[in-house]
Amino acid sequence: MILAPSPLRSNLHAHSTFDDGSLSPEEMVRAAVRARFDVIGISGHAYMGRPSEWTMTPSGTRQFALEMARLKDKYAGIIDVYCGVEQDVLAPVPEVKFDFVIGACHAVDAGGELVYADASPEHLRAGVERHFGGDYYAFVRAYYETVAAIGRDFTPDFVAHFDLVTKYNEGGLFFDEDDPRYRAAAISALIAVMERVRVFEINTGGMYRAGRSVPYPAPFILREIRARGGEILLTSDSHDAASLGYRYDLAAELARSAGFRYAKVLTPRGFISVPL
Length: 276
Ligand SMILES: [Zn+2]
Ligand SMILES: [Zn+2]
Known about the structure:
By secondary structure, this protein is of the alpha/beta class. The chain has helices at 25-34, 58-74, 121-132, 136-147, 180-194, 205-210, 219-227, 248-257; strands spanning 10-11, 39-45, 80-88, 100-104, 107-110, 113-116, 158-159, 199-203, 231-235, 262-267, 270-275. It has one domain (7-275): TIM Barrel.
């Protein structure tokens, strides 16, 4: 490809039937071609060290990498295909070599039992009740302490949905996102993570899947990333075809109003910054 890929036609965060997506990798690649994307990366959820229906299995991880290598060749010249992994901070580091790694946090380890931020409102309510005495600010603090470890055991290319803990919190259902307890926990995790990772995705998946009104991360976090010299890229965390590039217009607008003029895109020579 002679021209740099457009950040508005790039997506490096998508799932397939190897984890919790609804399409095979090839169906997802074809959907991205139909949607006129320049770049599609599929980022399987890393195995968590225990069987879970939302992650790849160890043998599935190897098959996924082989299938992505086949698709990369098959679609060369049509769309740039990359094989990635969405590596949870609590998951063992896989042995497979990926084109890119997304660092993520989905859950808090509460004495061996995982309380997920993103499974369902019912799961969240029950987990916070059982392990945090119903105190959502205590849960949020534990969540961001877990986030703060992103980049400690492995070096991701970018950080996923930094404030995923707000997935089911639209309208302040569980906690107040303007509360200093919430904001202090988020910002101190951001400062810790930014010592190791400088790129964050603006992820529209929570808007598509959970009715959030803004992408991750919230504008106050985006402004802080910008103020600290961080960088961004756009992703739609797609689990189906219809969500590819969902509300990228809003994501780009929020990025610009936070002061970002460039976004990262992946090319065969690595990540580059292009005007947003
Ligand atoms: Zn995720
Ligand atoms: Zn994802």
